[in-house]
Amino acid sequence: MEAVGMFAAGQGSTEVAKELRVSVRSVQRWRRAWRETGEDAVRSRGPASRPKLSEALFAVLEEELAKGPVAHGRPDQRWTLGPV
Fold it and tell me: Is residue 6 exposed (0-12), middle (13-18) or buried (19+ Cβ within 10 Å)?
């Protein structure tokens, strides 16, 4: 919806893309949909897929992350995406 405000303010696609850190092509698609159908066309519909973890597994993950990286064999207190 930020993009819609920028479109209404007359900002160009390149400027919107840079500000929102997305591709110019995405902004062009959003602008076209907005012009043709209105705000509902660009409103977020949530994630495209279901969460991969159940609520119970997510709770377990939170507990394990709270223990810290060293408790899981890491050499220091930094997490990286791979081990997580």
Answer: buried
Q: Which residue has the tokens 């949909």?
A: 33
Q: What is the residue whose two structure tokens read 């066309």? A: 41
The answer to pTM > 0.85 is no
Query: Around 59, how many Cα atoms within 13 Å sit in the side-chain half-sphere?
Result: 3
User: Considering only CA atoms, which of 44, 37, 51 is closest in space to residue 22?
Assistant: 44
Q: Is 41 buried (19+), middle (13-18) or exposed (0-12) by CB count in 10 A?
A: middle
DSSP state of 50: -
Per-residue model confidence as pLDDT tens digits over 1-12? 889 899 989 999
